[in-house]
Amino acid sequence: MEDFPGITQAMSPHPSERTWPKLHKISFALLRKLYPERVGEIGNRLLEFKRTFGKPDEEIFEELTYCILTVQSSARSAEEAVIRLKRNDLLLRGSAKDVERCLRGVRFARTKANRIIKARRLFSSGNEIRIKARLPADPQSARRFLAHEVEGIGYKEASHFLRNIGYRGLAILDRHVLKGLVDLRVIKEVPKSMSESKYLAIEKLYVGLAERLGIAPEALDLLLWSARTGEVLK
Asked: Which of 17, 89, 109, 183 reaches 20 to 30 Å from 103, CA-CA?
């Protein structure tokens, strides 16, 4: 496996929301070319995630809702649904039917609406939402808690949520990342199913790859995602 050159670049204060052509095959040579071009965008996004943890718990719940909605749906449709829920003041107060009406474009809208309501109840304390106080500081422990306690959240979704609120060192093993790992011959094929033990085994390989390349695991995720999709999204 080839070493990846370390790169340092100052980050601009706001993400530029740039887009690039979608690529269908990932190689070490390609990553070496793409990282200098996208390191500023990736760094901005990671800084944005780090700042999120300092926001009110209501905004943390928005991120959890977003990650519940992304299961078998696009990131864009999930993001648009969260915006509609906020605009209609339904994220923290709406019934399951009210929430479902805002989930246009999201697959399994009824199931996910019920999961959002259950997550809201799980983290409710009186009239408030309290998530941050319930989360262990250790990333692995926080992920295990979420995957076991929040309906509709598995290891991938828990990793996604935690990364989006500033936790580090976890792999978000979605289809884009897994296909990249196949291209790079880190794994032989994309698994048809993902048990907890299989997730952790592939994550260990992924983190080892990130260390060898000299990139933080959360930065490598965004690099692989942007190579496949042409965007550095959350």
From this structure: 17
Fold of 28-52+170-229: Endonuclease Iii, domain 2 (1.10.1670)
The SS3 assignment for 1 reads coil
Tokens 């009239």 label which residue? 127
pLDDT in tens, 107-146: 999 999 999 999 999 999 888 999 999 999 999 999 999 9
* Residue 192 is a catalytic residue: no
Is pTM beyond 0.85 here? yes
Instruction: Single out the catalytic residue among 174, 179, 183, 234.
Output: 174
Q: Which of 112, 156, 179, 234 is the catalytic position?
A: 156
How many angstroms separate the Cα of 125 from the Cα of each of 33, 120, 121, 131, 223?
Answer: 49, 10, 8, 10, 38
Quick check: 39 and 12 in contact, CB under 8 A?
no
CATH number for the region 57-164 comes to 1.10.340.30
Question: What is the spatial distance between Cα 92 and Cα 86, in angstroms, rounded to a whole number?
Answer: 9
Q: Is the pLDDT of residue 75 over 80?
A: yes
